[in-house]
Design a protein that fits this description.
- With about 130 residues, this protein is an alpha/beta fold.
- The protein has one domain: 3-Layer(aba) Sandwich (Rossmann fold).
- Helices cover about 45% and strands about 20% of the residues.
- The protein has five helices and five strands; from the N terminus they run βαβαβαβαβα.
- The model has no long low-confidence stretch (mean pLDDT about 90).
Length: about 130
């Protein structure tokens, strides 16, 4: 009998209520979830967690989501992990910056949690070797 290992998602957001909402949404979707409160913690956790997907909020103290995204995409060990960037402000410039830095998707809050999980599953499936 083979056991199916749940897909892992790493979520970084400094807003406790948003972090909890995302955590519950992904757990309900069958994911194993690891949460971080800022970009620096997310970048540090990626190598040990080895997630199949990363969610980064843009506005976080210390290392923001775009800075964390750039670091992840510069590292050969993490550059192929799909990253979804979340922002409470839908500025076109921020969206362009995220896409240029290598984000797989840019979502403006509020968003549909079920749609987010669906998109996450599609991204993981298409990124699988």
């Amino acid at each position: 009998m083979t056991t199916i290992t749940p897909q892992k998602v790493l979520i970084a957001d400094d807003e406790p209520h948003m972090l909890r909402l995302l955590e519950l949404t992904f757990k309900k979707g069958g994911f194993e979830v690891v949460c971080c409160r800022d970009g620096k913690a997310a970048v540090a956790a990626v190598t040990t967690v080895q997630p199949q997907l990363i969610l980064l909020d843009v506005m976080m103290p210390g290392l923001d989501g775009l800075g964390a995204l750039r670091q992840l995409k510069e590292n050969p060990a993490t550059k192929n992990i799909p990253v979804i960037v979340l922002s409470s402000k839908g500025h076109a410039l921020t969206r362009v910056e995220a896409e240029l830095a290598g984000a797989s998707m840019f979502l403006t809050k509020p968003f549909s949690p079920s749609q987010l999980v669906g998109e996450a599953k599609k991204m993981i499936a298409s990124a699988a070797p």
